[in-house]
Amino acid sequence: MRSNAYTLIFTSITTVLLGFLLSFVSESLKETQRINEEIDIMKNILYSLEFTEKDGPWSGEEVKKIFDSSVIQKVVSADGEVIEDLIPSEIRADKMETQFPLYVKVVNNSVDGYAIPISGKGLWSTLYGYFALENDGSTVKGIRFYKHKETPGLGGEVEKDWFTNNFVGKKIVDKNGSLVSIQSIKGQVDTSSPDAYHQVDGISGATMTTKGLNEFLMNDLKKYDSFFQKIRVESKG
Amino acid sequence: MKLFDSKSKQALKDPLMQDNPITFQVLGICSALAVTVKMDTAIVMSFAVVFVLTMSNTVVSIFRNMIPSRVRIIFSLLVISSLVTLTDQYLKAYMYDMSKELNVFLALIITNCIVLGRAEAFAMKEGPWRSFLDGLGNALGYGIILVAVAAFRELFGSGSLMGFQIISDSMYTSGYQNNGLMVLSPGAFIILGLIIWVQRTIGKIEEE
């Protein structure tokens, strides 16, 4: 049996040494990791805005190039005003409830769509994604989830094309222009139903995930409603 | 001393087949279920375990005569968790998409019984070179099963291997369907059970 002093010294030295090693590695890789995260976010915004990878997967630089050249980052306030000189990454933590990021797709100098971040609880986890509208402010352009821990094969199907493709072309407002969001319903959408314009096929076996999705999509769209109302008025007039 | 005497060979070779950590010792099952939906995640996971297990075995073995016996498990865990954190940080920096898919299971290598088990049962007693081989053997044995399970699950669950479509579209249009069970964890259990059955039949291993 070794003495207590030896045990203490031995553990202290190893802890300090390994601690130094880990903090050194973590510090030197930090920058690369931060860039990866940024590129991942950009990539998902691009997917939701219907940019497609033509020649195989994008490299990090390509993502950045496409994003910088055709997406404008903006911040809108709760009453629908664009806040000048502010980009999403600069929103202060205490202003998260009143200032919202907005990503505008620009093609040949004209607006081609808007993407907003969406997130909320499903069954097991918080789902994160982006939701994009056409430039009329009412038609869905795309939806994309990049982070969730729902059951693969059931709730996890939210990220699959068969599910997200159903959103494209649906409307988030009714005839009177008030927000109805998109509802994913049980089973298949009856195309003759008067509500079919804002309904999508649900996922069987994933009632709680789709219910959560319906709720948080509505909540997130509410935040931007005054902004998109203005867009809708402009695009009609 | 010969580099590969019979005991070193045994340390490397046994865990590959007849003393395989997953199918025979039945350790590390949880990650074997979690990361085997697709082959590429299984392969990266196997490499991570190879790195962690060989390194931890070697390090523990080098210090085995200096480690106070009262804190030896804490010391092993310290080494293992540091190695896992290093791997995790490295993947986050250079294989970001992969680290997102493996997410928590990479960090859970720390609690993988194979790693601590080998440190405690082998590396605390044997020299660094043998411990290195033992770690390598066990990690490869783990990796072989992982990749085999993943190959079955990806082929029958998603119709592809390593992300390449194997089952042609014409098969799907003529009524073939992917087996949804293979994508879920119970599918891995079934495959694993079949592998264990086949292996024990071939190896003529009898239960007491």
Keywords:
heterodimer; A: 237 residues; alpha+beta; five-stranded antiparallel beta sheet; two-stranded parallel sheet; 5 helices; 21% strand; B: 208 residues; mainly alpha; two-stranded antiparallel ribbon; globular
State the distance separating the first and last CA atoms of chain B.
38 Å
The class by helix and strand makeup of chain B works out as mainly alpha
DSSP strand tally of chain B: 2
Structural class of chain A: alpha+beta
Biggest sheet overview of chain B = 2 strands, antiparallel
- The oligomeric status of these chains comes to heterodimer
Low-confidence stretches of chain A: none
Beta-strand content of chain B = under 5%
Helical residue percent band of chain B: 55-70%
User: Would you count the extended β strands of chain A for me?
Assistant: 7
First and last CA, distance of chain A: 87 Å
Give the largest interface: A-B, 24 and 25 residues
Strand order of the largest sheet of chain B: 1-2
Taken from the alpha-carbon principal axes, the silhouette of chain B is globular
What spatial order of strands do you see in the largest sheet of chain A?
1-2-3-4-5
Plain-language structure description:
The complex is a heterodimer of chains A (237) and B (208). Chain A has helices spanning 4-48, 60-70, 161-164, 207-223, 225-236, and strands at 71-77, 99-107, 110-121, 126-133, 140-147, 183-185, 199-201. In chain A, strands 1-2-3-4-5 form a 5-stranded antiparallel sheet, sandwiched between helices. A two-stranded parallel ribbon of chain A has the order 6-7. With 237 residues, chain A is an alpha+beta fold. Chain A is globular and about 80 Å long. Chain A has one domain. In chain A, helix 1 crosses helix 2 (60-70). In chain A, 38% of the residues lie in helices and 21% in strands. In chain A, a hairpin with a 2-residue loop joins strand 2 (99-107) and strand 3. By secondary structure, chain B is mostly helical. Chain B has a domain at 8-145. Helices cover 69% and strands 2% of the residues of chain B. A two-stranded antiparallel ribbon of chain B has the order 1-2. In chain B, helix 1 (6-13) packs parallel to helix 7 (128-158), helix 3 runs parallel beside helix 6 and helix 4 (72-94) packs antiparallel against helix 5 (96-107). Chains A and B meet through helix 1 of A and helix 4 and helix 5 of B.
